[in-house]
Write a structure and sequence with these properties.
about 5% strand; ion transport; ion channel; CSC1/OSCA1-like_cyt; Csc1-like; CSC1-like protein ERD4; two-stranded antiparallel ribbon; mainly alpha
Length: about 725
């Protein structure tokens, strides 16, 4: 990519962002679009425009986002969203403090070196000379000037340590504040028990669990709920709900058909065969009522069978005080590791019921198998990633698609293709992964949705680092490189150091495309807006369908966090080689913080709340990116620049491992388990325990009748008030 292509890419991205900002400013003022731009406020029962002045200023949202307190963010989107914002602001602080020293020091050091620039050290294989003069590749081999770049690695590292330590303490205190809130939450009085041994002859599983915990916790044990096999009941319930929705929709259609000239209207009909295309034609309203009346007794019968006969070796156990539940979750209840496994229960809305009964060793085996699949997928996925990055270059397009030669020969088309094609192809290709990774994570036997998201996020991080960062960096030489690594493992650092500078311009445009176009689309919400209006115009008939059409969802941490981590890895690894990338990283995370803060306050609604449980995961991944950066710089400075003092970087690499270890020992246990001192700060009175119990009843087992202790009642609430 030459300099004109880079400027074209950057300028086009900036123009697109400006247009998206103007669209956002205009569209958000339309009353009919409030459900797209302010759904979070609407669902909380607030006026979308409360406290806002009508203005045509496209930057007014920035003032609102910056002016909101962290408490307001927590109230609107939860602790998880606030922790994610801390993550963005922490990375922003790392890059700003690093850039304060690196930019004014390293750029002049590189630019004023009069030595000839080596081919291997060029940031872009000799095609980007203007920026190459501002990079380490412009410094002569063995030059004393390399000391400045070596010390720059130390500066970035210690800035990262300081910022991450402060951020860890802040999120820990924020989590403790949420955990000690006087608001009663069902999960704080509940523990999840797995690997329950078989009940003695003549004793039910419920009696078995009750007697075990009653003996160990005689004063605080309340009752237990045995996990059951709900597959059949859930299938009937979903079918029943489907007919109820269809009936509501059909009644609206029938009401709309009544006119002055035809007051009786036209009753809707449908065929009951395959996809409603074949079979007997029936009156839709009558058919839905018949199916509902048929399924209701069927569901009630299946509920009774499920509760009494389909009990599994897992349970939820309830205690009448928060400290008692926390103590029980952190106590070893059995001499054997594979029986009576007790842990803090997840929120009712994020329980993965089918995973709870999985046995201890089954979970271990599943975990090994899943990570084996992930490893193989990472390895083999690198082949198409490298193919995409290599094939979408202009040279290869001419080579493999000769009929495009005349088209790409046009200067304007050539410039646009060079600027955008590889980056867009890579973004589209990587968008196919998240569904697979979430599925694999749940197959491990993980008990909660938030845990599955964290696991999928970790797997996606491996993908983006190895397949995007390393795949693009090593590029078309992948297979030769793999052969070199296998035959000479010690050359991996040399390979990475020699390949990294050649991809600098690709990643500059990649980062620019991500923050300008990516954040512009997220803020303007053009795609959700178009989809909503199409659904409302052609598909939605009932209020429930309209609400479902504009439901905003949550942040989508499983994909959002790894993408941010990729940018961190890119910017850190190039921060000393080509410091000019630091401002791009600052804009990405600065703009990302503003956009995410706006979306947290007005748009996204959390699907679950884990009280910042993802923070240790975020912290560990930043440290992993830092270590990769340090190792890369060791290879680049020592081997390519032939600087004899490169081994002075070894202590800083070791210090990163030490820092990660100290942080884990100092902070992690308070995230893994709720400290007893935090639990004791909360509710003192005994809450409404029956409400806490019923909050965990799956919807498919809900009923309006309460016949005995084994019969569930309907409960969908996840945040309860203390009983008087």
């Amino acid at each position: 990519m030459d300099f004109s292509s880079f400027v074209t890419s950057l300028g086009t991205s900036l123009v697109i962002f400006a247009l998206l900002m103007l669209a956002f400013t205009w569209l958000q003022r339309k009353p009919g679009n409030a459900v797209i731009y302010y759904p979070g406020r609407i669902l909380r029962g607030l006026d979308p425009l409360e406290g806002r002045k009508r203005t045509r200023n496209p930057l007014a949202w920035i003032k609102e986002a910056v002016g909101a307190s962290e408490a307001a963010v927590v109230a609107a989107a939860g602790v998880d969203a606030a922790a994610y914002l801390v993550f963005l602001s922490s990375v922003l602080a790392i890059l700003v403090f690093s850039g304060i020293i690196l930019l004014p020091v390293l750029l002049p050091v590189a630019a004023t070196d009069n030595g000839a620039q080596s081919t291997t050290g060029s940031n872009s294989s000799g095609t980007f000379k203007n920026l190459d003069k501002l990079a380490m590749g412009n410094v002569q081999e063995k030059s004393p000037r390399l000391w400045a770049f070596l010390l720059g690695v130390y500066w970035v590292s210690f800035v990262t340590y300081y910022v991450l330590w402060k951020a860890y303490k802040h999120v820990l205190n924020m989590r403790a504040g949420a955990k000690s809130s006087p608001e009663v939450k069902p999960e704080e009085f509940t523990v999840l028990v797995r690997d329950i041994p078989a009940a003695p002859p003549g004793q039910s599983m419920k009696d078995h669990v009750d007697s075990f915990f009653q003996a160990l916790h005689p004063e605080t044990f309340y009752r237990s709920m045995i996990v059951t096999d709900n597959k059949k009941a859930n299938k009937i319930w979903e079918e029943l709900e489907g007919y109820r929705k269809k009936l509501a929709r059909t009644e609206v259609v029938y009401a709309e058909s009544k006119t002055t000239s035809k007051p009786e209207g036209e009753r809707p009909t449908n065929r009951i065969g395959f996809l409603g295309l074949v079979g007997e034609k029936v009156d839709t309203i009558n058919h839905c009522n018949e199916k509902i009346n048929e399924l209701l007794p069927k569901l009630e019968a299946e509920q009774e069978i499920t509760v009494r006969e389909k009990q599994k070796a897992a349970a939820l156990v309830f205690f009448n005080s928060k400290p008692a539940a926390i103590s029980a979750a952190q106590t070893i209840h059995s001499q054997k590791i594979d029986t009576w496994t007790v842990m803090e229960a997840p929120e009712p809305r994020q329980v993965l019921w089918t995973n709870l009964p999985r046995k201890f060793y089954e979970r271990q085996i599943r975990s090994f198998v899943v990570y084996g699949i992930v490893f193989l997928t990472v390895f083999f996925y690198m082949i198409p990633i490298t193919f995409v990055s290599a094939f979408t270059t202009l040279k290869n397009l001419k080579k493999y698609l000769p009929f495009l030669k005349k088209i790409v020969a046009q200067p304007e088309i050539k410039t646009v293709l060079e600027a955008f094609l590889p980056q867009i192809a890579l973004l589209v290709f990587m968008a196919l992964l998240p569904t697979l990774l979430v599925f694999l994570s749940k197959e491990e036997g993980i008990p909660s949705e938030s845990h599955a998201v964290r696991a999928a996020s970790g797997k996606y991080f491996y993908f983006v680092v190895f397949n995007v960062f390393l795949g693009v960096t090593i590029g078309g030489a992948l297979f030769d490189s793999l052969k070199t690594i296998i035959n000479h493992p010690k050359q991996v650092i040399t390979l990475l150091g020699s390949s990294l500078p050649k991809s600098a311009t690709f990643f500059l445009t990649f980062v620019a495309l991500k923050f300008f176009v990516g954040y512009g689309l997220e803020l303007s919400r053009l795609v959700p807006l178009i989809i909503f209006h199409l659904k409302k115009r052609f598909l939605c008939k009932t209020e429930a369908e309209v609400k479902e059409a504009w439901a905003p969802g949550d942040f989508g941490y499983a994909t959002r966090v790894p993408n941010d981590m990729l940018i961190i890895t890119i910017v850190l690894c190039y921060s000393v080689i080509a410091p000019i990338i630091i401002p791009f990283g600052v804009v990405y995370f600065g703009l990302g913080w503003l956009v995410a803060r706006n979306q947290a306050l007005k748009v996204y609604v959390p699907n679950y709340e884990s009280n910042g449980r993802m923070w240790p995961h975020l912290h560990a991944r930043i440290i992993a990116s830092l270590i990769l950066y340090q190792i890369t710089m060791f290879g680049y400075i020592g081997i390519l620049r032939k600087f004899y003092y490169a081994p002075f970087l070894i202590p800083v690499i070791v210090s990163s491992f030490v820092f990660a270890y100290v942080c884990k020992k100092h902070f992690y246990l308070a995230f893994l388990n709720t400290p007893l001192e935090v639990a004791c700060r909360g509710t003192k009175e005994i809450p409404n325990m029956e409400s806490i119990y019923t909050a965990y009843i799956p919807p498919c087992l809900g009923t309006e009748r309460l016949e005995d202790d084994d019969q569930f009642e309907d409960a969908r609430s996840f945040s309860l008030k203390t009983a008087p």
